[in-house]
């Protein structure tokens, strides 16, 4: 059994240049279109209701937020430390164009240049699986990631679909994970998948 036993906010940064120094630090980046439930998922994964600020105003998060997270393998008592990185939501049309350009440049720079990133977690609203912006983000990640980096695709708010719709989504995206933050469905699977990837990376070094 893998659990997250500790999580705490560390700092915020406006761009990759201001990111905290990471010595042999595993970074897990969470990225999503605005209002997909990224903050709710972070809070549910860490069992920490106030870790990531949940806002009713899409696009409110403008900074890159860092959290130190401790995983525990309860079978072996092995601990693993990682950083969860909460990126600003992309694709929110109501922000000023100049600000949007700055955000997107910062995010692009961060994704392309931050070597400490081990996992990109791309969250998609299960009710809108084929939005152009999500396809563009996925294509960008596939073109950008390095050999030692991974992409995990997660569909959020799965409780909003009936069983037939869920089955169709699983058939179309067999490698994706399905979660519901409000119902705490799928959390253990995500924690284990993240841990297993990071553990392999730690053991390799």
SSE layout and pairings?
Blueprint (H helix, E strand, L loop, with lengths): L1 E12 L12 E7 L5 H9 L17 E10 L4 E9 L10 H17 L3 E9 L6 H13 L5 E7 L6 H10 L4 E2 L8 H18 L1
Outline of the structure:
With 205 residues, the chain is an alpha/beta fold. It has helices at 38-46, 97-113, 132-144, 163-172, 187-204, and strands at 2-13, 26-32, 64-73, 78-86, 117-125, 150-156, 177-178.
Strand tally is 7
What share of the residues lie within helices?
A: 25-40%
How many strands, which pairing sense, and closed or not: the largest β-sheet? 7 strands, mixed
CATH architecture tag:
3-Layer(aba) Sandwich
Number of domains: 1
Distance between the termini: 24 Å
Overall pLDDT, averaged? Answer: 85
Which percent band covers the strand fraction? 25-35%
CATH topology: Rossmann fold
Which residues form runs of ≥5 with pLDDT under 50?
A: 56-60
C-alpha Rg, in Å? 16 Å
Secondary-structure element order, as H and E?
EEHEEHEHEHEH
CATH class: Alpha Beta
In terms of quaternary structure, the protein is single chain
Please list the strands of the largest sheet in the order they lie side by side: 1-3-4-2-5-6-7
Question: Helices and strands: which structural class?
Answer: alpha/beta
Number of helices: 5
Instruction: Label the overall shape.
Output: globular
Name the CATH superfamily classification.
Answer: P-loop containing nucleotide triphosphate hydrolases
């Amino acid at each position: 059994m893998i659990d997250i036993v500790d999580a705490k906010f560390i700092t915020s940064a406006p761009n990759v240049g201001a990111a905290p120094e990471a010595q042999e630090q595993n970074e897990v980046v969470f990225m999503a279109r605005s209002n997909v439930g990224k903050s709710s998922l972070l809070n549910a994964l860490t069992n920490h209701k106030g870790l990531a600020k949940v806002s009713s105003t899409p696009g409110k998060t403008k900074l890159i937020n860092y959290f130190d997270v401790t995983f525990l393998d309860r079978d072996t008592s092995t601990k693993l430390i990682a950083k969860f990185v909460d990126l600003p939501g992309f694709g929110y049309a109501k922000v000023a164009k100049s600000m949007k350009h700055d955000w997107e440049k910062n995010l692009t720079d961060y994704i392309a240049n931050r070597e400490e990133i081990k996992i990109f977690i791309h969250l998609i609203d299960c009710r809108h699986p084929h939005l152009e912006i999500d396809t563009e983000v996925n294509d960008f990640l596939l073109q950008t990631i390095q050999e030692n980096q991974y992409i995990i695709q997660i569909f959020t708010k799965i409780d909003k679909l009936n069983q037939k719709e869920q089955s169709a989504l699983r058939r179309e995206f067999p490698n994706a994970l399905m979660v519901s933050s409000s119902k705490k469905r799928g959390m253990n699977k995500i924690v284990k998948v993240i841990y297993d990837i990071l553990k392999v990376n730690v053991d390799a070094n």
